[in-house]
């Protein structure tokens, strides 16, 4: 009676056994040869005196040999309690939650697997002594590899203010040019500047960089090998056996303009070369120009400040007046340097050889020359053009294209940067002149 889970018990007369009942279902009876009696536990307040039951022996007196020892056994609860209705929405939300967990796990696993596959030691940010360069565009070479590739830096291709260039051959038999930076204190800044620029740009008129070395005190750039060397060595070299004809010179002027226009107008950031000169213009086997040496490159965010240049950069004879006067530095400094290169392509001689002195004196000579050319262009006589163009061409050139180049020289060398051309407009002018001459 004290067991709340017991709803009643069944007494089996032939064995005098009791079976406690924890749950009552339909109340249906089943045919059996055994004499069985069911006793129900009811509340005291229930009056059953006038209640009729299908079987009259339900309330018969207990048999004389009633044995209810088994009543002490705790009744076994039914696993499914029909009195409590389980909420079905729990199954629905449980399924949704399980599906979500599986989906998140799959995404996390995929992301982790792809990340580990793509970001390897040779393809992560190379961090050494302050260097953080995304190497997905480069391969990092060991110093030992480059010593072997250059046969211990045997063949020298050229020298510059920031380093020496050597010829090498990689293990895949690809010829390369290795720029070995000198002056470590300066080399670090130049090295970082070159890599930060190279990681963002690619153009057919720019030298491609294949990799780098940053090991100990060694800082090297691994560049594509350009067969015919620099424009300076061909145009001004005493031992040069190559004479650039007019078509080649015009194509060089156009290719360099395209490369600079890409740097100034098509990159995600403004890129100022700051040292445009014939030594930094290389010619491939087809005499297509490729601009090299971004060690002095100046990066400016579009719309940002452009007055944070620390010191004058460039080479005497190619430096724009604003470098000296301390005016804001923009991409127009490259336009000025390009104008000097055009002048040298036309005349076949260095402008810097016109005088030996400071940048101010060279600039003064250039100013007088530009003024003279501007006056000549105003007249109708064009006989002076042949006298101005490189005599080594023997008069074999296009007067239309020569006049166009001279006009561009005057425009690019304007002292007022607002009147100076942009490289985009230079490219359009050259393309129009090329079409008109055909």
TrEMBL record:
Phylogenetic lineage: Eukaryota, Viridiplantae, Streptophyta, Embryophyta, Tracheophyta
Keywords for the protein's UniProt record, in alphabetical order: ATP-binding, Disulfide bond, EGF-like domain, Glycoprotein, Kinase, Membrane, Nucleotide-binding, Receptor, Serine/threonine-protein kinase, Signal, Transferase, Transmembrane, Transmembrane helix
InterPro entries: Kinase-like_dom_sf (IPR011009), Prot_kinase_dom (IPR000719), Protein_kinase_ATP_BS (IPR017441), Ser/Thr_kinase_AS (IPR008271)
EC number: 2.7.11.1
Gene Ontology CC: membrane
SMART domains for this protein: S_TKc (SM00220)
Localisation per UniProt entry: Membrane
Organism expressing this protein natively: Aegilops tauschii subsp. strangulata
Superkingdom field: Eukaryota
Catalytic activity: L-seryl-[protein] + ATP = O-phospho-L-seryl-[protein] + ADP + H(+); L-threonyl-[protein] + ATP = O-phospho-L-threonyl-[protein] + ADP + H(+)
Protein name: non-specific serine/threonine protein kinase
């Amino acid at each position: 009676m004290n067991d709340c889970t017991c709803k009643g018990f069944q007494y089996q007369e032939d064995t005098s056994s009791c079976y406690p009942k924890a749950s009552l279902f339909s109340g249906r009876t089943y045919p059996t040869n055994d004499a069985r009696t069911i006793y129900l536990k009811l509340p005291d307040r229930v009056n059953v005196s006038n209640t009729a039951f299908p079987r009259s022996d339900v309330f018969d007196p207990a048999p004389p040999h009633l044995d209810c020892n088994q009543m002490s056994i705790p009744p076994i609860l039914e696993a499914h309690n029909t009195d409590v209705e389980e909420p079905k929405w729990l199954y629905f939300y449980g399924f949704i939650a399980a599906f979500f967990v599986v989906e998140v796990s799959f995404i996390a696993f995929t992301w982790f697997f792809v990340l580990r596959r793509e970001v390897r030691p040779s393809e992560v940010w190379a961090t050494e002594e302050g260097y953080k360069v995304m190497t997905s565009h480069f391969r990092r070479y060991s110093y030992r590899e480059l010593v072997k590739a250059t046969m211990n830096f045997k063949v020298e291709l050229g020298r510059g203010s920031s380093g020496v260039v050597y010829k090498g051959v990689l293990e895949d038999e690809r010829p390369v040019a290795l720029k070995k930076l000198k002056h470590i204190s300066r080399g670090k800044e130049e090295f970082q500047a070159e890599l930060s620029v190279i990681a963002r740009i690619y153009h057919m008129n720019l030298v491609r960089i294949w990799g780098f070395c940053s090991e100990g005190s060694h800082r090297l750039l691994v560049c594509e090998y350009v067969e015919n060397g620099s424009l300076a060595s061909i145009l001004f070299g005493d031992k040069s056996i190559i004479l650039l004809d007019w078509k080649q010179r015009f194509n060089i002027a156009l290719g360099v303009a395209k490369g600079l226009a890409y740097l100034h107008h098509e990159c995600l950031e403004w890129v100022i070369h700051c040292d445009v000169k014939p030594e930094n213009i290389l010619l491939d086997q087809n005499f297509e120009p490729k601009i090299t040496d971004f060690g002095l490159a100046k990066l400016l965010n579009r719309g940002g400040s452009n007055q944070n240049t620390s010191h004058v950069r460039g080479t005497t004879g190619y430096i724009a007046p604003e470098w000296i006067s301390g005016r804001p530095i923009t991409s127009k400094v490259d336009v000025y340097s390009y104008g000097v290169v055009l002048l040298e392509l036309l005349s076949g001689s260095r402008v810097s050889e016109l005088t030996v002195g400071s940048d101010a004196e060279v600039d003064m000579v250039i100013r007088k020359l530009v003024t003279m050319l501007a006056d000549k262009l105003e007249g109708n006589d064009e006989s002076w053009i042949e006298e101005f163009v490189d005599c080594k061409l023997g008069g074999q050139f296009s007067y239309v294209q020569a006049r166009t180049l001279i006009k561009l020289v005057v425009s690019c060398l304007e002292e007022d940067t607002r009147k100076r051309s942009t490289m985009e407009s230079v490219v359009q002018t050259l393309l129009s002149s090329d079409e008109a001459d055909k």
